């Protein structure tokens, strides 16, 4: 237990109470309780990692489950329809053209989930430019064996499946990652009694998962109100380093929801941004249904830019998805698209839907022409 226990009311205000009682105890719940009983409370980041990425019982290991759709737990830009992938394909094509139309060009996707984005991008390559389609090798990096097998069955020889990005070593290419950064495990902090505490996951007297804390010293100010809850920065160097080494020259496209550091840690944001999605609802408790619900937090784009710059990448201004996709869609819009495509474009760019909630961050590596806007 903590040497100086914090007042936990801030956590109780940040996350739903009373807790929900599942009809059946998730298998991962039993594993976590056993681990905590043997080794002590888990840092929240370790708990989140297990909930999302346990190789058999983690949320993303459930390859056959319908999680991303109107009938699942949440929707993404990919769920809107194939236009999102088509516009990203056009963005990559423009980069390819501006850098000499190389005969070999690798597209590396992270977090491919059910393969829909890969399918949407690949389907449009030939229509955009047959020479571009011939040059592209599509690679998906997926660490979970169950999901790799699922993607292999769905995509066949359209894409190469690898378990880690360090398996890619190529001259020039692009990385595409839609809603990946928000799923990186984050530490959770509570400000109480004029000091910071790291949030831990423990077990109570009834063998239920429960909160605990320990004193911590995150790189955060000490002028927050009692009970302030926020997330820390994930382990970005470990995550980004192999990606920075995949290419000699490259474009990196990250699309996600998030904030700059100043906004993320505003004193008025007392409950942080951590949330869980289950059945299209975002108010599930993080300690309920481990492995059976999504856990996510807004991306700290300032931290990502700093980490990328330290690895030799160049960061370009973050912009909302509405502006970014409008730039990507310039030629498509001039070609008089059909009504179905226009409806998808409006959903992706409308301020009240995906347009202002999501942002695009581009990074480049090496002596390349970014070709944007």
Q: Outline, from the CA principal axes?
A: globular
The major pleated sheet works out as: 9 strands, mixed
CATH-derived architecture of the domain at 72-184 and 236-265 and 299-365: 3-Layer(aba) Sandwich
CATH class identity of the domain at 72-184 and 236-265 and 299-365 = Alpha Beta
Per DSSP, the total helix count is 14
By secondary-structure content and strand pairing, the structural class works out as alpha/beta
Low-pLDDT ranges: none
Strand content: 15-25%
Q: Which percent range fits the helix content?
A: 25-40%
**Gap from first CA to last CA:** 53 Å
| Topology, number of strands | 16
Question: How is the topology of this model organized?
Answer:
Elements: H1 9-14, H2 27-39, E1 42-43, H3 44-53, H4 77-80, H5 83-98, E2 105-110, H6 116-128, H7 130-135, E3 136-141, H8 145-155, E4 160-162, E5 170-178, E6 188-192, E7 195-203, E8 209-215, E9 228-231, H9 236-244, E10 247-259, H10 261-264, E11 275-277, E12 294-296, E13 299-300, H11 301-310, E14 314-315, E15 319-320, H12 321-328, H13 330-334, H14 339-349, E16 358-365
Parallel strand pairs: 2-3, 2-5, 3-4, 5-10, 10-13
Antiparallel strand pairs: 1-7, 6-7, 6-9, 7-8, 10-16, 11-12, 14-16, 15-16
Helix pairs in contact: 5-6, 9-11
Explain how this protein is built:
The chain has 373 residues and is α/β, with parallel strands linked by helices. It has a domain at 72-184 and 236-265 and 299-365: Rossmann fold. The protein is 34% helix and 23% strand. The chain has 14 helices and 16 strands. It has helices at residues 9-14, 27-39, 44-53, 77-80, 83-98, 116-128, 130-135, 145-155, 236-244, 261-264, 301-310, 321-328, 330-334, 339-349, and strands at residues 42-43, 105-110, 136-141, 160-162, 170-178, 188-192, 195-203, 209-215, 228-231, 247-259, 275-277, 294-296, 299-300, 314-315, 319-320, 358-365. The strands form three sheets. Strands 2, 3, 4, 5, 10, 13, 14, 15 and 16 form a nine-stranded mixed β-sheet that branches. Helix 5 (83-98) crosses helix 6 and helix 9 (236-244) crosses helix 11. The longest helix is centred in the first third of the chain and has 16 residues, at 83-98. The chain is globular, with a radius of gyration of 21 Å. The protein starts with 8 loop residues before the first helix and ends in an 8-residue tail after the last strand.
